């Protein structure tokens, strides 16, 4: 599957804009981490757990642009997240969209030609994500959250 911490951080980004079903289908796709690693590289970002953690807004926006909008899902509900029924049809649509991403990517030699080809394929405009990339996560945690994080990352040396 992939490096667990990276997948967790990717899911935290996706869930900002998508329902749990969409998030899980994307996160459990065998090429999930390859997809986001490639997207990060396309836009000049280093791909590691800390960067993913800081760039959740970018993960959410990239998910919307490269996957969710291509499936035709709509934002609904009070939380205004992309939502769909938990059907095999919707799961197949998400998987096909991810697979199509990689098919288009294989046709292109560089990031610029890929972005152009992707936008052309979906009859959309090329997206640069500069605004989303510039936004970092607010790391100011409550005392409780800091204690939980410290406990989570504590390594027992016994």
Q: Can you give me a brief rundown of this structure?
A:
The protein is mainly α and 158 residues long.
Provide tags for this entry.
158 residues, 4% strand, globular, 9 helices, mainly alpha
What is the total tally of β strands? Answer: 2
Per DSSP, the total helix count is 9
- Encode the helix/strand succession as letters: HHHHHEEHHHH
Structural class: mainly alpha
Give me the Rg, rounded: 17 Å
End-to-end Cα distance, whole Å, is 30 Å
Shape field: globular
Helix content: 55-70%
Oligomer: single chain
Order of strands, main sheet, comes to: 1-2
β-sheet strand percentage = under 5%
Mean pLDDT: 90
How is the main sheet built? 2 strands, antiparallel
- pLDDT below 50 for ≥5 consecutive residues: which ranges? none
Q: How would you characterize the overall build of this protein?
A:
The chain has 158 residues and is mainly alpha-helical. It has nine helices and two strands, in the order αααααββαααα. A two-stranded antiparallel sheet has the order 1-2. Helix 1 (4-14) packs antiparallel against helix 2. The chain is globular. The model has no long low-confidence stretch (mean pLDDT 90).
